[in-house]
Amino acid sequence: MANPIIISPRLVSQCWTALAVFLILLTRPVFASCQTEGLKFDHAQLRATPPDASVSAGYLQITNTTGQTQRLVSASAPFAKRAEIHYMKHDSGVMKMFEIKSGLAVPDRLTVALIPKGSHLMFMGLDRQLKEDDIFLVTLEFAPCGQVTLPFHVTRLPRLGQIHGKTHKKGDIQKGHDHKQHDHSH
Ligand SMILES: [Cu+2]
Fold first, then answer.
1. What are the tens digits of pLDDT across the range 93-107?
2. How far is the CA of 67 from the centre of ligand 1 (A)?
């Protein structure tokens, strides 16, 4: 006669604990940040707006060393109803903006710059004025690495570091530094 299998409540509880620990370990890479995987962000800026403006644009530089292409698929911010990823294109002699619906690819080992007159984040349905030197957290969603929330600095003259040439010091833009003083170096 076979012995009955006795499962004590304590054993069940231990099993659940072990399973929970296992699941946490298993799912941990999902929560690893894009930064620890190798995405780097520089010069995150928002364009300052006049009162009652309904849109603004966001710019930043994304460097990818994650070993695979990362795609910027969406953005969101507390001050805007929605955000889109745009690119600019000449259309009948006029620069127009179009949404990049499939997301913006950042190939491995490359830097992609979202810049004025280039690809940019477009924030629509603003619920407040974006004033110079304010800082807002913007969440970017990348596939496959996940979500990143970064501080964006509001500036009247958004520019990226490499446009300045060699004299640019890292962090100038974030500090609200006045760029006019070294325009002669361009
Ligand atoms: Cu746009």
1. 999 999 999 999 999
2. 29
